Amino acid sequence: MKAAVIESAGAAPRYADFDEPKADEGHEIVSLVAAGIHPVVRSLAAGRHYGSHGIWPSIPGVDAVARMTDDTLVYTGFVTPPFGTIAERMSVPVRMRMPLPHDADPVQVAGGMNPGLSSWMPLTARKSELDSAGRGSGLGTVLVLGVTGTAGVLAVKNALALGATRVIGAGRDENRLRTVTGLGAETVQLTGGSETDATNIRSALSGVSPSIVLDFVWGAPAEATFDALARRGLDEDEGDVAYVQIGSLAGAEASVPSALLRSTRIRISGSGAGSSSMAVLMREVPVYLGLIAAGTVDVPTSVFPLSRIADAWTAAGASGTRAVIVPD
Fold it and tell me: Which domains does the chain show, CATH number per domain?
């Protein structure tokens, strides 16, 4: 079969022949309809991601819209390496597939599910937690770091869809910050200067602790946010911040001040494969499929045939629309 094939860690994929996948027990063969080239796909292919398998040659891709033998379209993934989803055919676990709503656009699903679920999962978990605690304000204020990327923009839409009273987005691209403002969020432009960024984030919060911080960048922006959230004085903190680390586009490491942890009611955790509940994920997948089908959330996409994987890979490396691969 034809597939996107990566020969070694960090190499760009090429359009080439690859072995046919086999349907092991509990798996079935499905055909590609659409697959997104997400940042995690590129990170895994480069060997930088903690989930990188180190098997070469291999096919990239973590999720896809696929066609079953009865023509049913499903959202699926969890393909066993060295196979991936950017190929004409793939072997997927029977229990890890979800039928698409009849009016869902496969390209939107392929482009939007991965980046959209990255914020939807922690947001719904936090909302449930606050509701159970009897906090009538719901999500309250949501702070998004790295808001100008696809996942960040979808995080704004998700937070507003879940009833956040305020969404504050921080990012570096001035033009895209204007787009985020148009969605109903307040924005903070990050300059790369820690003290300036901390001051601007603190000013945007206006003395209100966010109920949740969604951090897609880590590194220096995270450190600036820690500075902005830190408190002075010995009085009890009335806030309750859930800080969720999702991506690391600005750096793999960030220094957490000890005073922040002692003075502020804050919990820092991560959200990603390995730390998230698979049962909860499968429960939320049809919910988010419904939001995409209804147009409540959408993502700009650029569509490429599989044979143009090299062009798509280059396009995916630049910020902007989400590159989606479809069959030739």
Answer: 2-99+298-326 (3.90.180.10), 117-270 (3.40.50.720)
